[in-house]
Amino acid sequence: MSKKKLEAPSLEQLEAELRAVQYKNSYGRMLRSTIYILITVAAAAVLIAVLLLPVLQITGGSMTETLHDGDIVVALNGSDYKTGDVVAFYYNNNILVKRVIANAGDWVDIDEEGNVFVNDVQLDEPYISEKSLGNCNIELPYQVPDSCIFVMGDHRETSVDSRNTAVGCIRTNLTIGRILLRVWPLSDLGLID
Length: 193
Prior knowledge:
Blueprint: H1 11-52, E1 55-57, E2 72-76, E3 86-91, E4 94-103, E5 107-110, E6 116-118, E7 121-122, E8 142-143, E9 148-152, E10 170-171, E11 175-184, E12 190-191
Antiparallel strand pairs: 1-2, 2-11, 3-4, 3-11, 4-9, 5-6, 5-8, 6-7, 9-10, 11-12
């Protein structure tokens, strides 16, 4: 049997092998770093979407002309609402969207033509196309209880809201937040008034 003499690798071969190993190590570190960053960004996005800026899809027509069935909106968490704010809230394991008409302690009255008065002052409501007393079975004038808001849909004829005891006033601890922005459809992208 003949013995073959092993030759030591040349300096160029050693340098090439060293560069290959260094590239492999740096590629692995960069890949792990990228994955960690993506996971962190995704977790932060989920936390923001759930806790600070919930994203909701509108179903139904109680807020027509302001919002339409299928619109996707972003809400801003909070509980300090003023008259005219559009808010999302929990009701019977559903999320509803309506407009704030009055806050705790305010007196609400609605006449037969659908004009809304808060503390004896008629509201200017440019966001509704038709006034209506709607499905109202509460005794008017009505005082909003503590820690509650009185809400109504913009499509007054069909909206079931605080005018009806089925929904009633909304406790502020059940609110998700004020609807801030419509993000879909893109043609209607913009702030919600």
